[in-house]
Amino acid sequence: MSDVTTAEFNEDGKYIRKIRSFVLREGRLTKGQSQAIEAHWPAMGLDYTPQPLDLINVFGREADTVLEIGFGMGASLVQMASAAPEQNFIGIEVHKPGIGACLADAGEAKVTNLRVYHHDAMEVLEHSIADGSLARLQLFFPDPWHKKRHHKRRIVQSEFVQLVRRKLKIGGVFHMATDWENYSEHMLEVMNAAEGYKNQSTTGTVVERPDHRPLTKFEARGHRLGHGVWDIMFERTA
Question: Is 18 annotated for ligand binding?
Fold first, then answer.
């Protein structure tokens, strides 16, 4: 499970924009992770700038672009990029060992359609991603902040989902997954109240895990122990 961002929210769930709203988590890199960053960052790394990315220039083509916030160690993101070479993938992670592990896997898999940011997700989303440019935004297993008094710190809040909506194309999808049922209920409550979205679930609740989201080792172990995972997918309609 990955922390999505260290940005802070106030008691009303509003994102607090500060000059330094985050701290990059250096962590302890393994030799392999360090070597992977050195070898693959020039081709796959994206340095943060407050100007919108030119996706055609970055990927050398026009294609549907998928953005994942907080990809952890990146194994499932690399799997997705490898399985869908016709799409572009961008991952954001503040934890440096995760960047190293992701780049090591990506190099081994020889994927060419993946780029990564080592930066705060809120800043990248707000400033570096052009409005209406994403086919899908993925938020998998964000920090659940499971204590009730901390629920306002959850990233899925009304202001955040409207920022996501702005970045999606019409018909683009915001895909969330969590292994905390209470968080899935919170996600649904926020999304059902959000303007400009439609739930892709035929029951108006959660969806079955779609083929494009790989089953993680952590999730497979959870299934064996009877733990649930909830996928929620909302489409931008306006």
Answer: no
189 belongs to an annotated ligand binding site:
no
Residue 210: count of CB within 10 angstroms of its CB: 12
Contact yes or no for 102/68 (Cβ under 8 A): no
Over residues 176-205, the mean pLDDT reads: 96
Q: Is 14 annotated as a binding residue?
A: no
Residues identified as active-site: 143
| Distances, alpha carbon 53 to alpha carbons 87, 114, 117, 175, 206, in Å | 16, 14, 12, 22, 32
| pTM over 0.90, yes/no | no
Question: CA–CA separation, 142 vs 183, rounded Å?
Answer: 9
Give residue-wise pLDDT tens across range 103-124: 999 999 999 999 999 999 999 9
